[in-house]
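agent> fetching stored inputs for the pyridoxal-5'-phosphate docking request
agent> found them:
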Amino acid sequence: LPQPKLDLPTPVDTITFHDIPLLIKRDDLIACEFSGNKARKLYAYFKQNIQTPIVSYGSNQSNAMYSLSALAKLKSVEFVYFTHHIPSYLKQNPIGNYHEALKNGMQIFESDEPEQSAQNHDGVYIPEGGASSMAEEGVKLLANEIIEYAAEHRIGDLNIFLPSGTGTTALYLQKHLPFKVYTTECVGDAAYLKKQFSLLEQDEQYHPTILSLKKKYHFGKLYKELYDIWLQLRKSTDIEFEMLYDPKGFLTVAHHREEFSNHLMYIHGGGLQGNSSMLKRYQRRYG
Ligand SMILES: *Cc1c(COP(=O)(O)O)cnc(C)c1O
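agent> prediction call returned; pasting tokens
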């Protein structure tokens, strides 16, 4: 079976952010074509013998869309993807995840009901963002790497932070870690995220702790303070962070710093192949 080469376990680096010492779990280094988070969530599929099209749906710049296109390419099957709308500007000037997924052979269709269209299509159906119990196996591997790191460094009071989309990664991490997992909502509000947790796991003792900010940030929109945080991180560390999730993540860490124990590990979820499109938009607006 064709399998991606994954560099596991991923390393842990240390940085200081707003005077907060942070451990950075470098899941961005897992494998370039499945950067980070999605490699963990799709791990169970890597081992499967897939012979029918891979079918999914979601936004036209999603990190999951790109990673699924890489999975389909690896398995030599079609990748069929449904989305609400593709702006004509993007069609004429493909960029970011959309561009990379097309290069991998993605067949993308506009649909008024993308979820329905995907479910009705023949093939291996993968829900938006890979939000399913199939993600548990790969995220459990991440949990085990963290447990080993903590044991090796004799850290007993480790806290974990990662920003959430569907919340799948944070949920399965909390389920398989003896440490407290914190997250913040990046897509939808805290109530949406809580509901996503419940869909995957009814027992609330396994639910991560959600930390929110007063201000509502709409996913994919541009905010000066989020751009500033990303620029600060780029200047003060050797690590490139992602632009949709990480800026909100770090803003939340700074705002809620009193919550955390001495050792805080931030999970870098990768997704850097999507940065080119966001960076262009930010530079156009703020220079
Ligand atoms: C997909 C993604 C997330 C969100 O993961 P969920 O499991 O859906 O919460 C966070 N960060 C990055 C970089 C991602 O690509």
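agent> quick read of the result: The longest strand covers residues 20-26.
agent> awaiting further instructions
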